[in-house]
Amino acid sequence: MLATISIDPSEIVTLQGAKIQGEGLVAIETALIVLYKAMLTIDPNLGRAPVLATGDDIPIVNGGMGKMLALKDKKERYDRDSQSFLGRLVEYLKIKYRVRYIVPMTRRFTSTDFVLARPHVVRWWQRS
After folding, report:
1. C-alpha dist (Å) from residue 32 to 12, 52, 85, 123
2. Whole-angstrom distance between the N-terminal and C-terminal Cα of the chain?
3. Is the pLDDT of residue 61 over 80?
4. What domain range is 22 assigned to?
């Protein structure tokens, strides 16, 4: 269990700095899986609606081992690391969205752009 809870610092570094495209995606995916498994080991109810505990499904954080300060610290650190990564991902997606959809709508078109985008208009104009 301790092997699952402990994450190699290189995994966190990957989440903090790897490119969110190309080969970086594979490294990020691997790091996210390791982080998720560790967080799920600490708190099996992660992401689920709260339910009454039956004994076997008591989160480690709230159960016997969870009283250990080190586990609480790890859970908080992993929460911060995942929030930090999600912040990076949101910023990346905002930039990609702007570049893909907003910038093309706001830039001024030249006559060449018009001709390339509307070849049927050029054919009509040449017939006149």
Report:
1. 9, 28, 9, 54
2. 79
3. no
4. 2-127
Model pLDDT for residues 71-115, shown as the tens digit of each residue: 889 999 999 999 999 999 999 999 988 888 876 666 665 555 554
Q: Where are the alpha helices (DSSP H) in the chain?
A: 2-5, 9-17, 23-42, 69-97, 103-106, 111-117, 119-127
Q: Which one-letter DSSP state was computed for residue 50?
A: P
Q: Are 42 and 74 in contact (CB under 8 A)?
A: yes
**Overall pTM surpassing 0.90 (yes/no):** no
Q: How many domains does the chain have?
A: 1
What does the pLDDT read at residue 99? 83
Q: Which two tokens stand for residue 109?
A: 């078109």
* CA angle at 87 for the pair 81 and 90, rounded to the nearest 5°: 140
